[in-house]
Amino acid sequence: KTFIDNFEWKKRLWKFFSSCKFNLTKYTHTTQYPTLSPFPFLPSFTPSTPTTPTKLGAGGWSPLDTDRYQWLQVDLGSRKQVVAIVTQGRYSSSDWTSKYRLLYSDTQKNWRPYLQDGNIWTFDGNVNSEGVVRHELQHAILARYIRFIPVDWSKDGRIGVRLELYGCSYWADVISFDGHGVISYRLRSKKMKIVKDVIFLKFRTTTGDGVLLHGEGQQGDYISLELRRARLQLSINLGSNQYGSIQGHTSVTSGSLLDDDHWHSVVIERYRRNVNFTLDHHTQQFRTNGEFDHLDLDYEISFGGLPVSVKPSSGGRENFVGCMEGITYNGDNITNLVRRKKVDTSSFRNLTFSCAESNSFSVFFNSTSFLRLPGQSDSDTLSVSLSFRTWNPNGLLLFTALADGWVEVALTEGKITVYMNVTQKKNTRIDISSGSGLNDGQWHSVHLNALENYAMLTVDGDEASTVRTAIPIQIQTGGTYYFGGYFLHTNTRSLQRSFQGCMQMIHVDDHLADLRALEQGLIGTFENVSLDMCAIVDRCVPNHCEHGGRCSQTWDTFSCNCTGTGYTGATCHTSMYQQSCEEYKHQGKSSGSYWIDPDSSGSLAPFRVNCDMTGEGVCVCVCVRAFVLACVRVQVLSVTSSAEYCEQYVAYACRMSRLLNTPDGVAFTWWVGRANERHSYWGGSGPGIQKCSCGIEHNCTDPRHFCNCDADLRFVYSHRLIVLTFTTDDNYYHDYINCILSIHVLLFCEGNYWNAASFSSPASYLHFPSFRGETSTDISFYFKTSSTHGVFLENLGTTDFLHIELRGSVVSFSFNVGGERMELSVHSPVPLNDDQWHRVEAEKNIKEAVLQLNGQYREVRPTPPQGHTKLEFYSELYVGASSGQRGFLGCMRALKINGMTFDLEGRAKGTQGVNPGCQGHCSSYAMHCRNGGKCLEKYNGYSCDCSLTAYDGPFCTDDVGGYFETGTLVRYDFLPEAGAFALREEKSLSGVGVPSEANLTQEELVFSFSTSSAPSILVYISSRTQDYLAVVLRHNGTLQIRYSLGGLAEPYTIDVDHRNMANGQPHSINITRNLREIRIQLDHYPVSTYTLPEDSDTQFNLVKSIFLGKVFETGQIDPILIERYNTPGFVGCLSRVQLNSVAPLKAALRSGLAAPISTHGILVPSNCGASPLTISPMASASDPWHIEAAGAVFPFNEDKASEDGVDRNSAIIGGIISMVIFTVLCIMVFVIRHMFRHKGSYHTNEAKGAESADCADAAIIVNDPAFTETIDESKKEWFI
Question: Can you give the residue ranges of the Fibrinogen C-terminal domain (predicted)?
Answer without folding.
Answer: 572-617
